[in-house]
Every structure is written in C-alpha cells, then in structure tokens.
Amino acid sequence: MRLQTVLLGCGLLLSTVTMGQSQPLKGKFEMKQLINDSSYAWFYTGVNRYNANSTMVNYIKTNKDKIQLVALVNTTDEASRKLLPEFYKVMILASVPEESIHMYGTDNSGNTGNEKADGYKVKKYPTILVMRDGKEEGRISGAAKATIEDDLAQILMKMNAK
User: Fold this and answer.
1) Can you give the pTM of this predicted structure?
2) Is the pLDDT of residue 86 over 70?
3) How far is residue 162's CA from residue 133's CA, in Å, rounded to a whole number?
4) φ, ψ for residue 29 (rounded to 5)?
5) 145 — phi, psi (to 5°)?
6) Long-range contacts of 112-119 (CB under 8 A, 24+ apart)
7) Mean pLDDT, rounded, for 53-81
8) How many Å apart are CA 80 and CA 12, to the nearest integer?
9) What are phi and psi for residue 148, nearest 5 degrees?
10) What is the distance between the alpha carbons of residues 86 and 157, in angstroms, rounded to a whole number?
C-alpha cells in the first residue's frame, strides 16, 4: 500500500513537471522569466555550463551599442534549448543591455502571437536576428555554424565592412 502511494505521488509529480515543460513559452518575454521558473531548469544549467570564446565575446562587446538583437525560440525545441542559454551567456559576458535584446517565444506552429515578431518570416527555430537601425544585418537560423559568439561576431564583421 505504501509503495503504491509513493509510486502514485512520483507519477503525479513527473506528469506535472512534464506538462509544465510541454507548453512552449509564447509571445514577448524576458530572460528573467526563464531563470526564475523552475520548469526551465535546462536554461539555468545551460547558461552555467557554457564556456564562451572570450576573443569573440570582446568583439561583440565593442560593437554592442550598434545593434539590436531579436531572438525567436521555441522553448520545447531541443535546438532552442541548446542555443538560448549559450546566447544569453554571451550577452551577459558582452554586457549587451537587456533593452537591446527582444525575445519572442513561438508555439509549435511558429506563431508568437506578436505581429511584429511574426513579420520576420522565420522558418527555422531558434533564429537570432542582428539588426542595425531597424534593418536586418544577418541571422542565425537553427544551430550555430561554429559557436553562437563566433557566428554573431562574423555578422558584426560583415556589418562593419560595409
């Protein structure tokens, strides 16, 4: 009897955690929401685990005032769960102001519920757009080619070469 009660309790707890994580975060959000919600433990763990390339981070840091970043992610998607913590760690290390980062969560059909975000015509998640003066300078779609900081620095170098 006692074993059944324990197993039932564990089953209910597991289903609650699973249900909480099965719904993607939708619409505009801030990183603090992911850090402060235990159902996004993968985010906190990923941020702490990631070791960014300091040379690339420093390059991003020197250009941080020239850009705005728009990230569109699906918090139930494995690629987003990998890239988003790495992106956030790089943003922290590069001292990019929070007001320069616009985060949007999508549902499984790619809708954010935000007209402006849905207008970016993103086909693959996660996608990070690098913007300057309202114009897209480059984007990272899906997994980073090298690392998130390297890909961002490459976009910045091309932008600066114009």
Assistant:
1) 0.83
2) yes
3) 14
4) -150, 170
5) -65, -45
6) 112/26, 112/27, 112/28, 112/72, 113/26, 113/27, 114/27, 114/28, 117/28, 117/70, 117/72
7) 96
8) 27
9) -60, -40
10) 20
